[in-house]
Write a structure and sequence with these properties.
Layout (H helix, E strand, L loop, with lengths): L1 H33 L21 H13 L5 E7 L9 H7 L3 E7 L6 H14 L3 E3 L7 H20 L10 E7 L5 H9 L17 E4 L4 E5 L11 H9 L5 H4 L2 H13 L3 H7 L8 H11 L11 H13 L17 H4 L2
Parallel strand pairs: 1-2, 1-4, 2-3, 4-6
Antiparallel strand pairs: 5-6
């Protein structure tokens, strides 16, 4: 019995040692974040440091999606209209094979309408079925369901023209990156609160079948971030639109990238929102002016950078800084943009 007791004590000691190591690692991560200083240059290397872009539940969800593909007629892929390609998932696209797909580019109300026009032309020229939508406009979903049935029927007509018959009920799978409005779209299609929604990414943790009506049956799936994000600024774009939770990378780098972008395009909304009088300022100076104007100051009167970064991202996500698209269609990009 004494031997067993010693074994238990040894296990407890090992556990305490492991726990101490984990706590020390966590403290080191916090210290690393605190070392980041305010600068006009965004450090891309930090975007890779210790970040798990493809957590365990996403890996499991991806496997389950592949398993269920055979049981659905079409996949509805939800993207963000502000980054039509960067908000896609190349791995997911490859896994679909010959499965019919309709890309729904949501949050068009927050996107630059002139650039959206270019994207509509690009998607049409590529022969990719798509719709730009605002998930809060109920009228959009009649178009979604109509086009969904049309895509499925057209494919059946091509494969079996002589024996074609439209299915009485279609099974749809909803996929996409987190926080693109998937759950809101599901609820509006179902005309009820069938799944939980919110401002934070990652609400849907598992697959669930939802009966829309007698014609459509939906399979909602968790949001998936591509496991291999090759372009550094794409990672920050995903953080800026809140597809990635703020606690993963922090607010500093996405907020700085956003300010740099708004300065480069000479956005009048930036000047108006924060009462700035010029674009010809360094990012440090602009952040300090925003801190003073919006009262984001610490007790000693210095800028509270954490608060001001959160404020800038909140304003952008709410549309207070204007309507923007971070990326152009491939043929409309400058040479350096084509390189990513």
């Amino acid at each position: 019995m004494a031997f067993k007791k010693n074994v238990n004590l040894s296990k407890k000691k090992d556990f305490r040692v492991k726990k101490a190591k984990i706590n020390n690692n966590a403290k080191d991560n916090v210290k690393r974040k605190k070392k980041i200083t305010l600068s006009s240059e965004i450090t891309p290397d930090y975007a890779n440091e210790g970040i798990n872009w493809f957590p365990g539940h996403m890996e499991k969800a991806f496997t389950e999606i592949q398993d269920k593909l055979k049981s659905v007629d079409i996949v509805l892929e939800i993207r963000d209209a502000r980054i039509p390609l960067a908000s896609g998932n190349e791995l997911l696209g490859k896994s679909l094979g010959e499965k019919s797909r309709l890309i729904l580019l949501n949050k068009v109300d927050l996107a630059d309408p002139k650039i959206i026009t270019l994207w509509k032309i690009w998607f049409k020229n590529q022969g990719i079925p798509h719709l730009f939508i605002n998930c809060f406009e109920k009228g959009s979903f009649k178009k979604v369901l109509k086009l969904t049935r049309q895509i499925v029927d057209d494919k059946k007509k091509l494969s079996n023209p002589d024996s074609f018959k439209s299915s009485s009920q279609l099974k749809l799978m909803i996929v996409g990156i987190p926080n693109t409005g998937k759950s809101t779209i599901v609820n509006l299609l179902a005309n009820r609160t069938a799944t939980r929604t919110g401002d934070h990414p990652g609400h849907t943790k598992s697959q669930q079948w939802i009966n829309v009506d007698n014609e459509f049956f939906l399979l909602d799936t968790p949001g998936l971030i591509p496991p291999d994000l090759k372009v550094e600024k794409h990672k920050l774009w995903l953080c800026a639109i809140h597809a990635v939770p703020d606690n993963v990378l922090g607010e500093e780098l996405p907020a700085q990238l956003l300010l740099k972008y708004l300065i480069e395009i000479r956005s009048p909304c930036l000047l108006k929102r924060y009462k700035l009088d010029s674009f010809d300022l360094k990012i440090e100076e602009i952040i300090k002016k925003i801190s003073i104007f919006r009262g984001c100051l610490s007790k000693n009167g210095l800028p509270d950078f954490d608060r001001v970064y959160k404020l800038i991202l909140m304003d952008f996500r709410a549309g207070e800084l204007g309507k923007h698209c971070f990326e152009l269609p491939p043929e409309d990009r400058q040479p350096e943009e084509r390189r990513g």
